[in-house]
């Protein structure tokens, strides 16, 4: 009886994990975590919103490479069906993220 209960409980836990990973909030959290961990976009100011498995990216990045990488990360996140890219490239953002040397 105890073994059967444990099996049912494990199956329920697995179902919840799968359901949460595909929920809008789960997708948003996954995309944000991947963006933060990526060396190309981690210093960028990108907001992530998800509705009906559609991710909208807003914000400013310093390079077109960072923009492309952010969109690719979102598209490759499990559960995402479409990505709306509202990211703006502003070269001055890149200039402010580097180190400044005093002379």
Question: What can you tell me about this protein's structure?
Answer:
A hairpin with a 2-residue loop joins strand 1 and strand 2. The chain contains 4 helices and 3 strands; from the N terminus they run H-H-E-E-H-E-H. It has a 3-stranded mixed β-sheet. It is elongated and about 35 Å long. By secondary structure, it is an alpha+beta fold. The C terminus is likely disordered. The chain has one domain: 2-Layer Sandwich (GMP Synthetase, Chain A, domain 3).
Number of helices: 4
Instruction: Tell me about the largest β-sheet.
Output: 3 strands, mixed
The low-pLDDT segments are 99-103
Helix content: 40-55%
- Strand proportion: 15-25%
Describe the strand arrangement of the main beta sheet, using strand numbers.
1-2-3
Second CATH tier, the architecture: 2-Layer Sandwich
The structural class is alpha+beta
The total of beta strands comes to 3
Cα-based radius of gyration, to the nearest Å: 19 Å
Termini distance? 76 Å
| Number of spatially distinct domains | 1
CATH topology group? GMP Synthetase, Chain A, domain 3
Rounded mean pLDDT score: 80
The succession of helices and strands, N to C, reads HHEEHEH
Question: What labels describe this entry?
Answer:
103 residues; 3 strands; 51% helix
Please specify the SSE layout and strand pairing.
Layout: H1 2-21, H2 24-37, E1 45-51, E2 54-61, H3 64-75, E3 82-89, H4 91-97
Parallel strand pairs: 2-3
Antiparallel strand pairs: 1-2
């Amino acid at each position: 009886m105890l073994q059967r209960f444990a099996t049912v409980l494990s199956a329920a836990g697995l179902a919840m994990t799968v359901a949460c990973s595909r929920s809008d909030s789960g997708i948003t959290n996954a995309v944000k975590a991947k963006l933060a961990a990526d060396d190309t976009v981690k210093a960028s100011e990108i907001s992530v919103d998800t509705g009906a498995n559609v991710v909208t990216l807003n914000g400013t990045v310093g390079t077109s490479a960072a923009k492309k990488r952010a969109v690719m990360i979102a598209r490759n996140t499990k559960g995402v069906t479409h990505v709306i890219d509202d990211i703006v490239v502003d070269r001055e953002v890149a200039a402010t993220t580097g180190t400044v040397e005093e002379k």
